[in-house]
Predict the 3D structure of the following.
Amino acid sequence: MAAQSQPGIARLTIETYAVRVVTLGLMMVSAILQARLLGPEGKGLLAAALSWSALIGGIALIGADSAVAYFVARSARYTLWFMRSSLIYTLGFALIALALIGWQVEMPVNRQLALSVVLLTPMAVSAALVNAICVGLNRIRLINVLNAASALCYVLSLLALYVVNVDRFELVVAAVLGVQAATLIVFFTAILRSADAGYAAPDLSALTRYALQSFRGNLAGLLFLRGSLVILSSVSPAAQAGIYSIAVVFADVVLMLPNTLINILLPRLAGRDPEFVAARVALIARYALAGALVLGLLTGIAAFVVVPIGFGGAFREAAIVAFVLCIGAALSTPGAVVSLYFNALEQPGVPATAAWIGCGALFAASLILAPFFGALGAAIAVVVARMTTVLVMTRRFYRATRLNWRTLAFRAGDWVNGEQRIASLYEQIVHTRRA
């Protein structure tokens, strides 16, 4: 059975990754347009707003997105219940956000930044829940198509602003909100049309337990992804945050590989035999690391060409920052893939613990390096934190599965022996011909 499903997995992985690369290319174009419209400071302000909204939205979810994906994968009958609950929760969160705007409260930070975060956060919450439902239903193609379409719409809206020479920060945020709202409407409509006719509510105690366990890891992951930019924007000029936000786009090309594999494989591995899951995860981790290393090098080198041409001389520093982040993202691939083993066996607490350890390393390194080296220091801190997480995750994987460390490492010894056998055979052929 596994052998039959593997071609489908490989085909879907390639298709998904290709579409996501196209989507990321559109995001790169949008980042270029943002930089041209807003400049380094405005780009940094927008990046900070998106980071804060994702961080606050992730905290507000309390692990619900991970729980939704898992329970919908176990039974599609939960889909309509989760759809209704997601809509109610998001509307309530939006009403609170609008009330904060209406009160005109005094804000200790930049008012543009604060209002943007208030408006963007409900969208982030709703998008996370809807994407989780689609992952649980294994509607990966729907996610791919709609994300690519939304990225294209965002590029077209920014291009329209650029053509008419309108560079107001508020209008760029409005473009983000409009595209996100339209995408969510299409998502809801598509899921409702294809949802299972049955309706059932999940076990709330099991749902709450899984969500809270996942929340530990999700919060650490959010702090991991957004913490470096938040710290950087606090201790360095806004231009450094803008440079870092551009470099992150290149690293996302590499990070998409393990994320794509996790989204595709979690519905297939959830609830399976632990030995089968362990063997499959170990195999995938080896090949994913090889692909990520090649991809990381190519993407990091490409940054030195794309950044000065596309973004301009003011963002030239982003190239070296992107190279560092790409290498760190490639080296972190095994840790991300291994987390699939624990999530599939209802043990999200293990990746959560590793994520918090890595998050602690990130904050410590960022506070030390970012004030002195700016965006480059923040990138080095991210690499240190990623490697810390990988070491913790692989060690826990070995202990849980009792597999040898060579199951995740490259079998370089086999390659060396193979090269030696080829060289020996070549010498025998040459000797025979001479004789």
